[in-house]
């Protein structure tokens, strides 16, 4: 069994914002793998699907981004999952728009949802998939930037990235972290 936690903020105010790319990716995985309807659980909403015969739980914590750790920890504890069976999917403004990057461990790199999860599970050795949202424009507060919507000119690139990230999650489920890193970290963003 695997757990994929896509990070974001609840409510229509934040739908399709830069910070909610993680939510968009788990919804994409549920859609393409005939996931069950999302239901309440673990301070979030949860769907279940099968990827190549393996049970995959898709979690969207509804605790707001900066408090995602409690939700993920509850699911990990309930299912008694080893940390390598958990994947966190989140935005990253240090990556170019639409670029994907898997990592198996390391710092949160300024991503507060990931930081809270690392604190809650007690290790930074948690697999993560980051989706680039581009750096904030000069003079714009990063907190305001990540909560903003994508500009119309960015929409196709991010929609394509969400589809690609869904495939990347499936690859991680099927073949593990190293294989997914080899396949998806090498891809360049589309111009």
Question: Can you lay out the helices and strands and say which pair or pack?
Answer:
Elements: E1 2-6, H1 21-32, E2 39-41, E3 44-51, E4 54-61, H2 68-79, E5 86-92, E6 100-103, H3 112-121, E7 128-132, H4 142-146, H5 152-175, H6 177-184
Parallel strand pairs: 1-4, 1-5, 5-7
Antiparallel strand pairs: 2-3, 3-4, 6-7
Helix pairs in contact: 1-5, 2-3, 5-6
Question: Can you put this structure into words, describing what you see?
Answer:
This protein has 191 residues and is an alpha/beta fold. It has one domain (2-184): Peptidyl-tRNA hydrolase (Rossmann fold), CATH 3.40.50. The chain is 37% helix and 21% strand. Strands 2-3-4-1-5-7-6 form a 7-stranded mixed beta sheet, sandwiched between helices. A hairpin with a 2-residue loop joins strand 3 and strand 4. It is globular and about 45 Å long. The N and C termini lie far apart (36 Å).
Offer a concise description of the structure:
The protein is α/β, with parallel strands linked by helices.
Question: Quick one: how many beta strands?
Answer: 7
The low-pLDDT segments are none
Radius of gyration in whole Å, from Cα? 15 Å
Relative helix content: 25-40%
Number of domains: 1
Number of helices: 6
Q: How much strand content do the residues show?
A: 15-25%
Biggest sheet architecture? 7 strands, mixed
Shape: globular
SS-derived structural category: alpha/beta
Overall pLDDT: 95
Strand arrangement, largest sheet?
2-3-4-1-5-7-6
Terminal residue distance: 36 Å
Q: What name goes with the CATH superfamily?
A: Peptidyl-tRNA hydrolase
**CATH structural fold name:** Rossmann fold
CATH architecture type? 3-Layer(aba) Sandwich
CATH class categorisation: Alpha Beta
Order of helices and strands: EHEEEHEEHEHHH
């Amino acid at each position: 069994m695997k757990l994929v936690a896509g990070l974001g903020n609840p409510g229509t105010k934040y739908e399709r914002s830069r910070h909610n790319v993680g939510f968009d990716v788990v919804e994409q995985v549920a859609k393409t793998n005939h996931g069950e309807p999302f239901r309440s659980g673990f301070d979030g909403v949860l769907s279940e699907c099968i990827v190549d015969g393996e049970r995959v739980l898709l979690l969207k914590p509804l605790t707001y981004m900066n408090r995602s750790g409690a939700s993920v920890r509850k699911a990990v504890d309930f299912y008694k999952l080893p940390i390598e069976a958990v994947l966190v999917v989140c935005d990253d403004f240090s990556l170019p728009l639409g670029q994907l990057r898997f990592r198996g461990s390391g710092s949160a790199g300024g991503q507060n949802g990931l930081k809270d999860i690392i604190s809650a599970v007690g290790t930074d050795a948690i697999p993560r998939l980051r989706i680039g949202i581009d750096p904030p424009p000069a003079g714009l507060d990063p907190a305001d930037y990540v909560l903003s919507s994508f500009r119309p000119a960015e929409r196709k690139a991010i929609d394509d990235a969400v589809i690609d990230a869904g495939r990347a999650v499936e690859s991680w489920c099927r073949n593990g972290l190293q294989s997914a890193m080899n396949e998806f970290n090498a891809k360049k963003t589309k111009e």
